[in-house]
Structures are given as structure tokens and as C-alpha cells.
Design brief:
With 304 residues, the protein is an alpha+beta fold. 30% of the residues lie in helices and 22% in strands. The protein has a single domain, classed as (Glycosyl)asparaginase (Glutamine Phosphoribosylpyrophosphate, subunit 1, domain 1, 4-Layer Sandwich). The protein has helices at residues 24-46, 51-64, 108-118, 126-135, 220-225, 228-239, 243-256, and strands at 7-11, 84-90, 95-102, 123-125, 167-172, 178-184, 205-207, 212-218, 261-267, 272-273, 283-287, 292-295, 302-303. The strands form two sheets. A nine-stranded mixed β-sheet has the order 4-3-2-6-5-1-11-12-13. Strands 7-8-9-10 form a four-stranded antiparallel β-sheet. The two termini are 26 Å apart. Bound molecules: aspartic acid. Aspartic acid binds next to strand 8. Aspartic acid (ASP) is lined by residues 13, 15, 164-166, 184, 186-187, 196-198, 204, 217-218, 220.
């Protein structure tokens, strides 16, 4: 099986405290977390595995990492609860699965994938989604697993840039198939019941082998209103734009309306784009040479 020309890109959110708030030790931990996720996906792609399996593995690794706002380490709602959203999409046939407003399944992205593969539906929310996950035998976390101490002070934060974050991955495998997956705790201090762009197909997550795969992060309300992930695909399909141009234009429209964020995307030729209009976006990529590249600010990538 061909394992050539694969590429995987991940993000750990564009939400962040002000620049002076990120100490070198935290930066180091986040580079390491991105790297672990990229290696998990890379190893699947290098062995001839699918883009779908690679983005799943990368997002699982980021959900396990309390440094990022997804799975363990998810932010709190205004009511002090945690409500997670996730989605996955397979570019081969545009099958998709999503969950919203759940707390219990250890890996929300696996819940989304199970919705895609084991239900006739695309999107399950709340108690019904949790019951489905139990019936499917998915791993549930112990009480307290998701709640990390460092997330609580964010409830009091007035800095909107510090209130969000998300994880996501896009990949093109050696057979030319695309996939995207995204997972989040949402925005800190959100109203209970609020759902962001992450699990909404075409807003925060999208994949179509004919165009591109996209995973977004940022102020979800804007990404929903501007259907950002599908907008990028549509610009390629109908406007003849290249990936960077399409992604840049979609993000510029969000910025014009006052929204901030970023995204990772890959097109069918394996070209990647990782644009953001925030101060930083935790991000990285790896290609068939196996070299892992990670970055946080608008700086040179660390490669190893
Ligand atoms: N987009 C996510 C949401 O609105 C949060 C983020 O990516 O920062 O739920």
C-alpha cells in the first residue's frame, strides 16, 4: 500500500492568554503535546493507514493532554460544568459524525466517530449522545478526570482570547484520501447548552476528497455564521481558488465581522495551510519525510 506523500497537520487552539502569560515551561509542554499527537498520526500514515485513523489518533492524543481545551483539561461553563463537542469527517464519501454537550466519554472524538460508523445519524447531543456512547461500550472517564485545576481561574477571566481553545487534525493519506477531526471544551464561561462550531459539519470541521479537509478553532459563533470550513471547500470547488487563498479569504471574512481564530487545512494534492488571525495558534505538521514541525507564535517552526 502506498504510504507516500502523506501529510498531517494539527492545532491545539488559537485561544491563548496574552503573550506574556505563556511561560517557557508551558510552551515546552505544548510543543511536546503537539509533537506527541503528530507522531501518533504519522506512525499510522507511514504504515499505510488511513487519514481517518490518523486524525482520530492525533485528536485522541490531544484530548488526553490537559494542556489543551478538549477531553481532559476542558474549560468550564458559567455553571461550573464541562460540556464537550467533537466531530469527524471522512473525505472519501463525506460521512460524518458529531457529538455536542457531552461530559463522560473519555474521548469525545471517538464518540463522534462511533456516531458516524454505528448510527444512522450524523449528530447526537446531550443525554441521548451519552446514552449512545454507553450502549456502544465506549470508555467513560472517572468523575473528576476532565477537571484540571488550571481551568477554573479562566471562568473569571475577561480576556476573550484566553477563553477559548480547541484541538483538531487534518490529513491526506498515501492513497490521497482526506479526513478532519476537531474536539473542544468550547469557550470558558459559555452558557450551559451552548454549542460552538467544532461539531457543526461545514463550520468547524469538513472534509471532501475533491477539495480539502479543514479543522477550525476560534470564536465559534463567527465560524458557524460564516460556515468557514465549507466556505473554504466551496471556494476551491466553485471559485478555482488554491487552498491558501481560499483559507485566507474565509478567515478574512470572519475577521471583518470581528471574529478571531485560525484553522488547519490540507487539499487533495497534500498542500497544507495553517492560517490564524490571533496572536498565536498552537500548531504543527508532519509529512512523509517524518520530520515533525511545531509552532505557537508567528515564529519559525521547531523541527525534529
Ligand atoms: N471554536 C471553539 C468553540 O467555539 C473554541 C475554540 O476553538 O477556541 O467552541
Amino acid at each position: 500500500m502506498a504510504a507516500t506523500r502523506f501529510v498531517l497537520a494539527v492545532h491545539g487552539g488559537a485561544g491563548a492568554p496574552p503573550r506574556e502569560g505563556l511561560d517557557p515551561a508551558a510552551a515546552h509542554r505544548r510543543h511536546a503535546g503537539l509533537r506527541r499527537a503528530l507522531i501518533a498520526g504519522r506512525d499510522i500514515l507511514a504504515a499505510g493507514g488511513s487519514a481517518l485513523d490518523a486524525v482520530t489518533a492525533a485528536v485522541v492524543a490531544l484530548e488526553d493532554d490537559p494542556e489543551f481545551n478538549a477531553g481532559r483539561g476542558s474549560v468550564f461553563t458559567a455553571a461550573g460544568t464541562q460540556e464537550m463537542d467533537a466531530a469527524i469527517m471522512d473525505g472519501r464519501d463525506r460521512r460524518a459524525g458529531a457529538v455536542a454537550g457531552i461530559c463522560g466519554p473519555k474521548h469525545p472524538v471517538l464518540a463522534a466517530r462511533r456516531v458516524m460508523e454505528a448510527s444512522p445519524h450524523v449528530f447526537l447531543a446531550g443525554p441521548g449522545a451519552i446514552a449512545f456512547c454507553r450502549a456502544q461500550g465506549l470508555d467513560f472517564a472517572e468523575p473528576g478526570y476532565f477537571a484540571t485545576a488550571s481551568r477554573r481561574p479562566q471562568l473569571a477571566s475577561t480576556d476573550t482570547a484566553g477563553r477559548h481553545g480547541t484541538v483538531g487534525a487534518v490529513a491526506r493519506d498515501g492513497d490521497g484520501n482526506l479526513a478532519a477531526a476537531t474536539s473542544t471544551g468550547g469557550t470558558a464561561g459559555k452558557a450551559p447548552g451552548r454549542i460552538g462550531d467544532t461539531p457543526i459539519i461545514g463550520a468547524g470541521t469538513y472534509a471532501d476528497n475533491g477539495t480539502c479537509a479543514v479543522s477550525a478553532t476560534g470564536e465559534g459563533e463567527f465560524f458557524i455564521r460564516f460556515a468557514v470550513a465549507h466556505e473554504i471547500s466551496a471556494r476551491i470547488a466553485h471559485g478555482g481558488q488554491g487552498l491558501a487563498e481560499a483559507a485566507g479569504a474565509a478567515l478574512a471574512a470572519v475577521a471583518t465581522a470581528g471574529g478571531s481564530g485560525g484553522l488547519v487545512a490540507v487539499d487533495r494534492s497534500g498542500t497544507i495551510a495553517l492560517p490564524f488571525n490571533t496572536e498565536r495558534m498552537y500548531r504543527g505538521y508532519v509529512g512523509a519525510d517524518g520530520i515533525v514541525h511545531t509552532a505557537i507564535l508567528d515564529e519559525a517552526y521547531r523541527s525534529s
